[in-house]
């Protein structure tokens, strides 16, 4: 088709990529339902997609990836800044010129036998002052249909590019050219050693090669919305964060907006879609994964969800853990690496019931029986669901102005030491709490070896697009800019256990009780008690009505374990040392202040 734009910069870039990658044809995407349906029908015909039963799961499809291509590949993900020191200790660095030469050789002819799709998309509501316009070029129809859900794909974006002459170029290929007459594989991709997910922060440029899966291929997600956006935000004076956004409304109709950063497996999506157990209080979802935040005219910090959908982990999502997520993918959804049941529905482990008929087709595309004891869905299997299908989506989730953030929440998974909730003494103290958020190592972090804690600043370790020390300093700079309008900061830990392994806190919907205490603190309705680690609830101020929590368990949940914190402090110092002379002085001051309070 003819290009639906006259923008020379964009046309020149597309022509350059076409010359390098030599596709059979170029298709400019428009984000329409017709386009989505046509691509899905083509993939069903080739065997790449499985159409699910229309009565059980309307307009929904399942895909099974190659077993070598099932997750983000951090070992093949690069920040190619001009200076190595700008990438920092949390990133893999390669010289940008060297990396481009390597990747250009791989890109040469890589789309032979395939269609090159040009996807215009906006991260955030189209036209919002906080949003960014981008173009992803890809040779994967799977990427196109997922981008339809995860971003705002539209020719309206081309109109904005015409006016501004500005867009973020994102290039992706599965890295599997087809010779004439060669049969395509069901899930084309390149071997691990040829996979590259490359970010060039000074150019706002993303190149990805060899993987067709998730954040490696849907370049609007982690690549643009976090790695490149965090570097842009650092330069431009805003924030791109790995945070959910929710609205919490009181019985009187007062709205509070909360942004929360948790590492993986710490209940981020569950909190974003919480069903409150506090009478009269209501949670509405604005975003489950990423927040872009910018100071508004009134000096407050305003947030948008740059995404348009949820790319959620399927295993463990159930009616009990997150009914709203399950409802979000009841129709018009894409499932990747789950079980396709005999009656053409989907199933995964910990869904809350046994697999219907005892089995189906597993994530490896083989016949599977639950009785075999082997997992049918991959642990990182996913659902791609439209945000507007979430029953508790906030009516203002697409407000181009964003919503004003009242509260920042940080947290990690600690079975001991860290109490249920505490508040920062100040915004600077809150920045320190976020910078030193930690979890006990899980199965996902076995490569860490013999360490007692895994530190994950602001849950951003894999996603900071520049030096982590500079990134922390940017948080302090934003606090200075916001002044007394900066959000209040809190730290939570839903995961405390007794010595015999029982949960001390029920979690899930009851986490709304903790959110209510935070709102009461913002309103000045309740006082707090000062401790070595921060401000904590006074007994009776955090409502426990209707919960069966023994007095000794509550005391344990609220205890400040001084000895435990001293051990954490030692681990913290060792971790922070890796940032060298880029570690902000204010972080060092907070470390010293905490140590003094613990020893006081």
Features:
single chain, 600 residues, alpha+beta, Phosphoenolpyruvate Carboxykinase, domain 1, Phosphoenolpyruvate Carboxykinase, domain 3, Phosphoenolpyruvate Carboxykinase, domain 2, 3 domains, 8-stranded mixed β-sheet, 6-stranded mixed β-sheet, 15 helices, 31 strands, 28% helix
Helix content: 25-40%
Percent of residues in beta strands: 15-25%
Tell me the CATH architecture of the largest domain.
Answer: Alpha-Beta Complex
Provide the CATH topology of the largest domain: Phosphoenolpyruvate Carboxykinase, domain 3
Number of strands: 31
Task: Specify the number of helices.
Answer: 15
Distance between the termini: 72 Å
How large is the radius of gyration?
24 Å
> How would you characterize the largest beta sheet?
8 strands, mixed
Average pLDDT value? 96
Alpha-beta classification: alpha+beta
Can you tell me the overall shape? globular
The first-level CATH class name of the largest domain = Alpha Beta
* Uncertain ranges: 443-450
User: How many structural domains can be distinguished in the coordinates?
Assistant: 3
